[in-house]
Amino acid sequence: MSAPVVPPRRPSAPRPEPLPIPAHHIPGREPLVNWPADPPPGYLGQLDPDFQRELAGRWADVRLEDCYFYHSVLLPDGSYVKGPWDLIDNESEYLGGIDLAGRSVLEYGPASGWLTNWMTEQGADVVIIDIGWDLSTDLIPLATFDLEETRQVQVARASQVVNSWWYVRKAYGHSARAVYAPVYDLPSDLGRYDVSIFGSILLHLRDPFMALEQAAAITDDAIVVVEPLLVPAEDIDRPVLFWNPSQSTNPNGWWLLPPGVITDMLDVLGFPNATVSYHRQYYIPETNPELADEVTFYTVVARRR
């Protein structure tokens, strides 16, 4: 096929100067780390209101310096926290324009929670599912990495990202609920949802199909998948996965997933009515901010009916 037409990124208002985030090593002010800890048996019971209040209490004193912000965030007082990915004012495009008012939404891997907050502002009832407790990210067993050391570093970073989600939730006072459980074996009491959302998550998973299969079993209307468009035009419609795209330099980068493989997987899982849209999102490399640029993404919205 020919290259897709990608509309320009929606203009955003100028950002204020970002808040300086204090260093994590200030003496006497160690970062808040709530993991690892023993999970509830079977990861069950987390949506109980008392359990949610207990979770919120864990992060009641979360501070800016406890956090790593994966997404840029505008706080209610007008201050700005800069993260490597800035979705601000382009949230609807990112989510394929799906109407979320009055819908129940299961959001996988919310990172710093900017989209969580935005969806609640659209009237969605959001539950997020993320890693925590004794869970960690999927790592490719690359021979060039000390995997145990890498896992420990990433658990610490994941804790800081979880902290940022609770920081944003506390700042906005929204009502989204959090569940920490394995993506391949969802808790049996998680309930059902109108919409499930995978925002740039599948490329980081050992088994993206299993994650989609688990979501499909509890989703009544639509599954939304967002991924970077990193394949040439001739591969966009192919139902294939591209393995280890970083050529063994990134233990978290399992796959490149063209739109064609996502639509095919979701068709198999009973979501045959799919649309694909394209959009640009702003990326600011932490090590080289001067290389900040727009990155092309695609979004699949697949429905049962």
Task: Provide structural commentary.
There is one protein chain. The protein has 305 residues and is α/β, with parallel strands linked by helices. The protein has one domain (41-303): Vaccinia Virus protein VP39 (Rossmann fold, 3-Layer(aba) Sandwich). The protein is 22% helix and 21% strand. The protein has helices at 49-58, 91-94, 114-121, 147-172, 208-216, 259-268, and strands at 73-74, 80-81, 85-86, 104-108, 125-130, 177-180, 193-199, 219-228, 242-243, 255-256, 273-283, 293-303. The strands form 3 sheets. The chain has an 8-stranded mixed sheet, covered by helices on one side. A two-stranded antiparallel sheet has the order 1-2. The protein has a two-stranded antiparallel ribbon with strand order 9-10. The chain is globular, with a radius of gyration of 19 Å.
Write down the overall mean pLDDT: 94
Helix run count: 6
Distance between the termini: 27 Å
- Overall morphology: globular
The CATH superfamily title: Vaccinia Virus protein VP39
Outline the biggest β-sheet.
8 strands, mixed
| Strand-pairing-aware structural class | alpha/beta
The tally of beta strands, per DSSP, is: 12
CATH topology: Rossmann fold
Oligomer: single chain
Unreliable sequence segments = none
Strand numbers in spatial order across the main sheet: 3-11-12-8-7-4-5-6
* CATH architecture classification: 3-Layer(aba) Sandwich
Binned, the helix content reads 10-25%
Name the beta content range.
15-25%
What is the gyration radius calculated from CA atoms? 19 Å
Reading off the top of the CATH hierarchy, the class is best stated as: Alpha Beta
Tell me the count of domains.
Answer: 1
Order of helices and strands: HEEEHEHEHEEHEEEHEE
